[in-house]
Each structure stands twice: as structure tokens, then as C-alpha cells.
Amino acid sequence: MSITVTQDVFKLAEVFTISRGSRTEAKVLTVKVTRDGVTGWGECVPYARYGETLDSVSAQIAGLSEDVSRADLYDLLEAGAARNAVDCALWDLEAKTAGKRVWELAGVAAPMPCVTAFTLSLDTPENMKASAAKHAHRPLLKIKLGTPDDMARLEAVRAGAPKSTIIVDANEGWSAEVYSDLAPHLIRLGVSMVEQPMPAGQDGMLAEIERPLPVCADESCHDRASLPDLKGKYDMVNIKLDKTGGLTEALALNTAARAEGYKVMVGCMVGSSLAMAPATIVAQGAEVVDLDGPLLLAEDRDDALQFDEDGVHPPVAALWG
User: Distance (Å, rounded) from C-alpha 196 to C-alpha 240?
Assistant: First the structure.
């Protein structure tokens, strides 16, 4: 078996901004695993917030032996982008070798289309209102916030999209005091959930203050090992394959989180349809699905995921799984 890693760049349709900065392109790693003439592939998005770079993740993958299995990965790599790409590539390889779809191998029901959020990036209130109006036909909008001027942005988005359900992602940008002040206004404006309002590791106050609307752990939740520290602070967990380190752990985290009473969001980094494809399996039954990465791109993979009024559809076999 051989493992290859390449760096790929996908241009974004528009500048994408969060509280940590802006980008005009998605830089990803594509991993291909070939055995007996059959190739499986996967994609990951190294994330600087977690100390990852394209080079560091490539080096992690290059250090693997060529006979590595999915079971081996959990002893060799920590949860993160490197393990994600290899895990998903091995799932794809197994499916192609067996002549089955990944969900059959995983023992779960065939995935159905899921309504996905569409993310509005951080901008001036005027521009965010215009963007909200442009996408007001979408049932679920996600707003990137996390600055001292968030109220004006919230008001502007609600004015631009009066009928859409809104969820908010603060990207660790608020303090407990800011969140407490904003919470009544979030409810007034019909926000249904707030994601990671405070920095991971500095979110203990969430257990001590009122949470009048559901709070979702993103940066605070990576894999099953994260769950004990979330108790009493969060109502929902955001499962991203680049955090869990692949589909295998994502499915396990989904089951474990449900067993502990958490609701589930399935999210993504900004990547191509190849990165989203495995997540559509985890997204089945999730309270919130946020797999809009390909919608933010100006270009995508061949055999890309289909998005329509029913949401994001599961991948065709020519893409993945």
C-alpha cells in the first residue's frame, strides 16, 4: 500500500472573514491511499488555531508506514487533520475494495439530504445586511461574530433575512459578561443557538451563568476525550472531522455525546466536497448541520456534492465512499 499527500488550493467565491482574520482561498491536503490498484482518498484542512500547518500535517502523514490500518491510526496520530485525511481515505479504499458504500461498512442507514446552514462572514453591518438579503431564501443562516460591535451586525442580518433561522458563531470572541449582555438580544432577534462564545479553557463561567439559549462547544470539543470537561457548560457539541481525526471517531463521538444528553451539530472547515462527503454520514439526525464549505468556493472537486432546496446530498461513489 502507498500513501501520497498533495497540497491543493481552491479559490473562494468571496473573501471569508471571522474574528481571527480573512482568507481568499482554501488550502487543503489531499491524501491518496493505494492498494492492489485501488485508490481511496480523503481531504483535511490544517488549522492554525490548533497548531497545524500544511507542512506539519504533511509530515505527520509521511511518517506513517505503508501498511497502516484505521485501527492503527489511533495509536499513531492524535485527533486532528492528519488522522482525518488518512482515516477517510482508508474508509474510501475499504468501500471501493468491497464494492459497497461506506455507510454499509459502518452499519448505519443510508444518508439522506440534510438542510445545511449557510455562513455569512464577518463584515460591516451594511454589508452583512446585504449578504443576508441575498441569502434570505435559505432556511438557516450562520453569522460569524466575536467583536465589540456585534449588536449592530445582528440587527442588520435579521433585517436582511427576516424569516431565516439564525445561529451565531462567536469563535471564542466573547467574555462571560459580553455573552450575558447579548443573550437577551439574541433571543429577541430569534437566534436559536450560539456557538463557542468564550475561549476554550476559559469557558468555566458557562456553568455558572444562565444559558437562555443552547450553547454549542466547538473549539472546546474535539473527540470523546473532550466530553467530561463540557459537563454543565454546554448543551450541544459541534462534530468536525478535522477535529475528531476522521469519520471513525466522529461516529463514536456522535454516539457518546447523544448518550450523555448533548444535542449534535455537524460542522466543517472551509474545504471542498471531498472534505464534506464523510461528514454527511455523521450529519444524519443532527439538530444542526453546517456543511456549507463547497458553497463558499468558486471552484470544487469533480463529482461535487449536490446542494438544492433539500439541502446537501450524500456523495456519489465517484467522489467518495
Answer: 14
| Three-state SS at 194 | strand
Phi, psi dihedrals of residue 192, rounded to the nearest 5°? -100, -15
CATH code: domain of residue 146: 3.20.20.120
Residues contributing to the annotated binding site for Mg(2+): 169, 195, 218
Exposure string of 65-87, with b = 16+ CB inside 10 Å and e = fewer, is eeebebeebbeebebbbbbbbbb
Strand 38-44 versus strand 21-35 pairing type: antiparallel
Asked whether the predicted pLDDT for residue 222 surpasses 90, the reply is yes
Tell which residue, 91, 90, 97, has the closest CA to residue 3.
90
* pLDDT tens digits, 97-120: 999 999 999 999 999 999 999 999
Q: Would you please indicate which residues are annotated as catalytic (active-site) residues?
A: 144, 240
CATH number at residue 21: 3.30.390.10
pLDDT of residue 19: 66
Tell whether 126 and 18 lie within a shared domain.
no
d(CA 223, CA 64): 21
Residue pair 8/28 in contact by the 8 Å Cβ criterion: yes
User: Is 122 part of a structural domain of the chain?
Assistant: yes
Same domain as 125, residue 63: no
Burial code (b: 16+ CB inside 10 Å, e: under 16) for 144-178 equals bbbeeebeebbbbbbebbeebbbbbbbbbbbebeb
